[in-house]
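pinned: reference chain
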Amino acid sequence: MINFKQYPQMTKCIIPNNVVLTDTNFSEAFSNMYQLKESCLPESIENMASAYYNCYNLTTAICGDNVTNMASAYYNCANLTTAVCGDNVTDMASAYRSCDNLITAACGDKVTNMLDTYLGCFNLTTAACGDNVTDMNGTYYDCVRLTTAVCGDKVTNMHAAYYDCRNLTTAVCGDNVTNMRYTYSNCSNLVTAVCGDNVTDIAFAYGNCVNLTTAVCGDKVTNMFEAYYGCRNLTTAVCGDNVTNMAFAYGNCFNLTTAVCGDNVTDMGEAYSNCVRLTTAVCGDKVTNMANAYERCYNLITAACGDNVTNMSVAYRGCFRLTTAVCGNNVTNMRGTYDSCESLTTAVCGDKVTTMYQAY
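pinned: its structure tokens
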């Protein structure tokens, strides 16, 4: 492995193509050489992993056709403006991470790994994704100026891919994606949601997308934990047939008017808390946890509770307009269930209830 760290004051390094190298591994070759501004390497280089890591003053990126590994190659090169990617590169993990001034993205056709590739590139305006990419975990995380999203056909993992991309207006999701955790969380200008046919996890996927008006949920989704939490302009809720976890799914969706609950849902903890425009509650037959499910739904007038529910703690607290109380046959915990429900006229209590502290 070649390195030049013994020359910390170096500002320029040019190695022409006619130089025969005994080692084509330039991993960490120039890492932490803060004074380096210009560099050119021969085509024979194969490994550029962390090659220019923390070279703050580098202004031009290079990548030869023989390079296969670009992992962290230009990580924290704050003065780079343009990205490059060689034809044979397969690994771009963190390649341009924290390149604050980068405005153009690149991705070769053979790249499979884009983990955190452009994370924290605040000035990036254009996204790229090669046809063979499978992993987009955190790829464009915190790219606040990005306006358009991309997703290759082979991508399976989109975990936090576009997290906090506040200027993104359109969402995409490939058919092979299974993981959408945090994918578009905090994308405050996004108006339409998407969900691929094979997605199983949309936990936090669209959390705090305050301008989102339409929700989606694929048939294979099982986890909706906080999926649409804080989407205050959302008016309609959805829930796929295979969803089991709806905890916090639509919490703080102030304009939501309709609640849904899939047949296989077991957890509705805080699912619709603070949905102040909801008027009717729902509860699936398999739900066991309703803790805080409809807390502070001020306009709710009808309550629901499935036969398998055991926990109703604070389920309807602060539902001022609620007139009728319900309690399932298997409920054990009614702590604070109907607390501050000022319009209630009749109380109920199931045979298995053990806790009723401040139930009414």
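why pinned: The CA atoms of residues 20 and 128 lie 34 Å apart. The chain has a mean pLDDT of 95.
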